[in-house]
TrEMBL record, chain A:
Keywords: Cell inner membrane, Cell membrane, Membrane, Transmembrane, Transmembrane helix, Transport
Record-linked CDD domains: TM_PBP2
Source organism per UniProt: Saccharothrix variisporea
Membrane-spanning ranges: 12-41, 61-88, 100-124, 136-157, 187-214, 234-258
One Pfam family per UniProt: BPD_transp_1
This protein's GO CC annotations: plasma membrane
Entry protein name: 2-aminoethylphosphonate transport system permease protein
InterPro entries: MetI-like, MetI-like_sf
From TrEMBL, chain B:
Keywords on record: Cell inner membrane, Cell membrane, Membrane, Transmembrane, Transmembrane helix, Transport
Entry-linked PANTHER family: INNER MEMBRANE ABC TRANSPORTER PERMEASE PROTEIN YDCV
Record family assignment: Belongs to the binding-protein-dependent transport system permease family.
One record GO biological process: transmembrane transport
UniProt membrane topology term: Multi-pass membrane protein
Taxon lineage: Bacteria, Bacillati, Actinomycetota, Actinomycetes, Pseudonocardiales
Transmembrane stretches, start-end: 7-27, 59-82, 94-113, 133-151, 191-215, 235-255
Primary location: membrane
Name the record gives this protein: 2-aminoethylphosphonate transport system permease protein
CC terms in the record's Gene Ontology section: plasma membrane
One Pfam short name: BPD_transp_1
Species name: Saccharothrix variisporea
Amino acid sequence: MLLWTRRSRAVAIAVFAVLFAVVVLAPLAMIVLASVAGSWNGVLPSEVTGSHLAGAVHGDAVASALVSAQTAVIAALVAVVLGTWLALSAARAPLVVRRVLDGVAHLPLAVPSVVVGLGLLVAFSRPPLLLNGTRWIVLVAHLVILLPFTFSVVSAAQRRVDPVLAAVAASLSASPMRVLWRVQVPVLLPAMSASASLGLALSMGEVGATVMVYPPDWRTLPVSVFALTDRGQVFAASASTVLLLGITLAGLVAVGAVRLRAAER
Amino acid sequence: MRRLVWLVPPVAVLAVFFGYPLVLVLWQSFVSDSGVVGLQVWQDVLGSAEFQRAVVRTALLALAATAGCLVLGVFLALVIAFAPFPGVRAVSRLVDVVLAFPSFLIALAFTFLYGSAGVVNAALGDGSVDFLYSPWGVLLAEITFYTPFVMRPALAAFSQIPGAQLDVAASLGASPWRVLRRVLLPDAAPALASGACLTLLLCMNEFGIVLFVGAKDVITLPMLVYTKAIVTFDYPAACVVAVVNVVFSGALYALHRCLFAKGAGRAAVDAA
């Protein structure tokens, strides 16, 4: 609409194509190529091998992948439940309380993940609660980082819900628990599943806080990828990254399928 | 009162696992390794050249990356919105997918693209590009990764602008540049400013890219927190840097909230 001549449109699209290829396509292609590269001395890998990918689904790498998947699922689930809880209970609070809560709950967004990790290290390496050195500290770190996102998505959806809906259910003498379970939560389900996807993806890729707090027996996949690149094993690192992306996408597809089924009912 | 009781469990989680650690970080920053309470650690850290370089570097990198993201993101969004081509939907889906990826992926990909043994050097001859382990490498990686964060809101804003408005402007003889400057950008400005503010905040706090590029002379504030705490076990100094970092990003975040809270309210009214 903005560009009327054929030529200007073609130029714009050509520039777009080049930029898009450099910015989005090339990095993705590189990771995939490197994960199957045997040796890479020229422009393209001179030899293709599946051994890195095979290595990524073996031993240590698989242990990391399992750790990451478990961490992501647990942290995302807890974050969705707590975020929804916070959004629902904040909606019924007086306006002043609601404003303050909205600000406070979003605050972890502004704090660098490294600082979240440092705080947990400082706070939970001493009594009354000793978490340092356990896997719980990793889970807590991920939860703190995900919570503002799940809260934000669910409370935005909550604001668009007609409050009359719950009031009508209550006036028909449904108990508060029943109103919550049969009216309020079902209306928010799409937002909850969207925030679950977001949480999964964020948790799978989290590095900053994890690298600060992880114990040796609970090393997530991104931390393993960093350890590999640090040792110069870039092909193995790429293979692990491809595995990471695969698991993330599979998780997103699974959450999407659950959402579809929920919508059909 | 009973309604407020329901707030207790989630707020308690935030307080125990987020608020309490932050307070302890602040407290720890005033306690030196030998247990003396005072401003000694603050003086040492704030006076060190390492810290001052990190502050300047962090600010410059974040500002430059945001500027780059704005230019690139607006251009890409403009083409998608106003010069659509076959496959444009697939392209914008791919952008969404990239948003879900971890940032360190870009840094890793850059070593294969622009590293000393990378594709570009292999194609153009050894040593033709050599910026990866300098601030430029981090900057380009950040622009690459954060452009979608500007592109999304820009696309959303452009799609709200009625095509008739552009056609009228054009039929009155305005050139595409003029339409862009006088109609499109002013209309999209709030969304772009909000996106830019968020990008600035994320770039300032970015850690994965800096860690993975691993350039020796690129020390940003989050990176300094990490090295102080994990590499040299200097917790008090790490806490000072962390507090400074939180103050900066907290201020930016507060600014973002106050500037755009009104806009969000209006958008909500419009939607209703």
